[in-house]
Amino acid sequence: MKFLSRAYILIIFLLLYAPILVVILFSFNGSGSLSSFSGFTTYWYRELFRDGEALAALKNSLVLAVCSSLLATVLGTLAAFTIDRAKRQWLSKALESVNNIPMMNPDIVTGVSMMLLFVGVAGILKLSSFLGFWTMLIAHTTFNLPYVTLSVLPKFRQMDKHLTEAALDLGCTPAQTFFRVELPNILPGMVSGLMMSFTLSLDDFVISHFVSSPDFKTLPLYIYNQTAHEVKFSMYALCTLMILVILLLLIAVNVAGSVGERRQKKLQGGRK
Description:
Helix 1 (2-26) packs across helix 11. The protein has helices at residues 2-26, 43-48, 52-85, 89-104, 107-125, 133-158, 161-169, 174-203, 206-211, 219-226, 233-271. It is built from eleven helices and no strands.
């Protein structure tokens, strides 16, 4: 049974990571072909940094992902705070269910509804060109919100409520209590929500396709436009660099989380 379980896990990991390994391998392929590997080269990485259109699309994606994830983290934390502090249980459950609906909604439905909303607003305001960075920012922030809320809400519920009451009794204002007592406790959930929002925004294609404009293209839209002809091998190099950056970010977050847990355990041990 142990052999079968290990073989099953191995197969699952192969299915998950084989496409990523293929992309990384062929980003160093000198022949520029998927049928054969002729030799190791960094030519496609040099070509990537000469491709101004691809770098502009990457810059747009990064700016959009950073802005939307930060906005979603702030708004999602406030939403989690509201759900947690709802005085009536049925209201808290209702708000939590409403928060979960956008995650269950198909992306194409969200994209079309967002497009219709923006076109309708543009018609009311009598604007000829309305789609672009700001509409994409609103759309990305909207679909990221539920994920941040679900990451932060359990931290609010796990937190010792007596700490908040003690801070208020000792003279802290509600704002001081939130920033000095509650915020350090929910910070891991906020970081997780921020990372997830950044990744989802960077990866999104369907919703972006409906709310974008020719003046503002993200990297997924740029790569999709290439599929009509032939995807450049420099895109494999770009994907490899993105995988490396995301891997380093995940390692940094995990290390920071483990260091924080050790410090918290030391503080708790010192108090005892």
